[in-house]
Each structure stands twice: as structure tokens, then as C-alpha cells.
Amino acid sequence: MMTARRMDAEGLIARLPAVRGSYTARASLADLTWFRVGGPAEVLYRPADPDDLAAFLAARPADLPLSFIGVGSNLLVRDGGIPGVVIRLAKGFSDIVFDGTECLVGAGASDVRVALAAQEAGIAGLEFLRGIPGTIGGGLRMNAGAYGAEMRDVVLAAEALDGRGRLHRLGPDDLQFGYRQCGVPQDWIFIRARLRGHFGDRAEIAARMAEIQKSRETTQPIKTATGGSTFANPPGHKAWALIDAAGCRGLVLGDAQVSEQHCNFLINRGHATAADLENLGELVRQRVQAQSGIDLHWEIRRVGVPLAANEAGEAAP
Fold it and tell me: Nearest to residue 211, comparing CAs of 155, 144, 146?
């Protein structure tokens, strides 16, 4: 059973500041993640807009655990769920506005939607976003990239709120982008960004995005419950090739499987638990290390507590 503290989500909500957005007790996160697994958020908060979020952060209890999620495409929520408050950006963070060749976009806007809006506006240079199944905020956090480009190639500026709700305006150097990472503190949450494009032909932009989508459909298991690329590419290597060489293509644990189509993807065959998926990923890491001597590092973000720890009343890691 959950501990008394975890069960008292309504009591936690009573401690939280009044907001214009919404609080939901024991909200299902499996419904919000692409893997379709995982336990609930103790409390899910959907802020109405950046001002609402800033006021919440400024007034929240200092001991309150906070987590942030986007569209759940690169996320594995453990079966015990996530203690404290999980923040998910909603409609008030999804505006897309073009100013010449620049795009001012909310952190909650999906990458695909931004790419399509840029195509409609005749702005080239953002086509690669069509191949990234996440949000702009998540893309900033991990310097997301695909098809020859990444966020650091197009970001002119970003804005983020720190853990106390203070606004920070960041330039490219402040973001400290690296391979699948940025240097912004983990407790800051991105709220908007300014992206750079250039004028282009709408038909050519559309053709490039169609090419990207066709490539994804051909090479990736995008029509199954998955979480995108599981491991980052080690320097000088491709993660999928290391996994394949270690004999892990198609490997099964519980109802989780290493994809036959692209072996750097884990898939939920229908009834997998988060533990199945995480344990399978760790088994892959062990086999790759034994075969090649190379350590794979998770690209998928794993959050929350295992079910056994939750039942025992242990704190989240």
C-alpha cells in the first residue's frame, strides 16, 4: 500500500498556493507518457500561463518535491509514481509567433507543431523538429536533435523560471549546450524560446518534412508504445550498433522488448511495467559493456519511485 503521506494527496493540495491553473490528486501519468506505464503523480499541476507558474513557485512550500514533464515521449515513470507535485505545461505555454525569420514559441508547444507552423509561414531551418516527438521545453533541456540538426543550431534565446519563480533570460552561451544536455540548473523550467530560421520555399520545406516523417516510419517503431531513443550515442559509436552487436535485438523481459526494427528503442508490447522496461534497459547496458567494454548512458529520463519502494514508504531518489 501507499504510505499515509502519499495517500493524502488532498492534504498536500491544501498546503499549496491558490492558482488559476488546476491541481489533480493522484493523476495517472501512464495516460500522459508514450510508454503507457508508470504510477500516478501525487499531485499534477497544470499552470494556466507563465505568471501563474511563477506565482506558484514563489509561494510553494520549501520542502515540496517538484518534477516537470512534457508530452512524455522521452520519459519512463516508475511504477510507484512521483511524490510531490508534477508540473505539466498546458495551453498557456504553446503560442507560436513569427517575427520575420524568427519564431517566438512557448515551451509547451510540440516540436512537430512548430515545424508545421514554420512550413506554413515559409520559414526553413526548423524542419528537423518534425522528427523530434517532444516539446520545445524538453528540446531545450536535452539539446534535442535529429536529421543533421539540433536545438543549439537554432536557439537565439530562452526564458526560464527558477525554483522560486524568478525569471531568467538566457542567451546561447548561458544555455551551455552539449550532446543531449544543457547546463541550466535542473530545477529551472523553460517557458519560452526564440528560434532562428530563414526564408524558404514552402513546397521544398514540406518535401523535406515528408522525407523526415517517412524515414521515421521506416526505421523506428513509432506506432508502438515506446519512449524514443533509449541510450545516448557514446563518442565515436552508434548505440544501436553496440546493442545489435551484443545480441540484444528483439530481447524480451516481461512484456518489454528491444525493438526488432530499431534496437535503440524499447517497446511496451501491451502489458509491460515500468520495471520491465527499466530492467530490460539495464540488461542491455550490461551485455553491451561485457561485449564491447563501452558503458551506455540512458537518454530516456527515468523518474519516480519503484513500486516496492513506494509500498515501503521510502523517499524518492
Answer: 146
Q: Closest Cα partner for 242 from 297, 283, 280, 296?
A: 296
Catalytic residues: 180, 229, 299
Supply the range of the domain harboring residue 29.
4-91
86 and 107 part of one domain:
no
One DSSP character per residue, 245-289 reads HTT-TT-EETTEEE-SS-TT-EEE-SS--HHHHHHHHHHHHHHHH
Residues 134, 209: one domain?
yes
Q: From first to last of its 317 residues, what are the pLDDT tens digits of the chain?
A: 334 344 478 889 999 999 999 999 999 999 999 999 999 999 999 999 999 999 999 999 989 999 999 899 999 999 999 999 999 998 999 999 999 999 999 999 999 999 999 999 999 999 999 999 899 999 999 999 999 999 999 999 999 999 999 999 999 999 999 999 999 999 999 999 999 999 999 999 999 999 999 999 999 998 899 998 999 999 999 999 999 999 999 999 999 999 999 999 999 999 999 999 999 999 999 999 999 999 999 999 999 999 875 554 444 33
State the burial class of residue 212 (Cβ atoms within 10 Å of its Cβ: 0-12, 13-18, 19+): buried
Residue 101 CA, distance from chain mean position: 27
- The β-bridge relationship of strands 75-77 and 301-303 is parallel
Cell of 15: 498546503
The reply to whether 67 and 99 lie within a common domain is no
Instruction: State the virtual CA torsion across 135, 140, 146, 147 in degrees, nearest 10.
Output: 110
Determine phi and psi for 60, rounding to 5 degrees. -65, 155
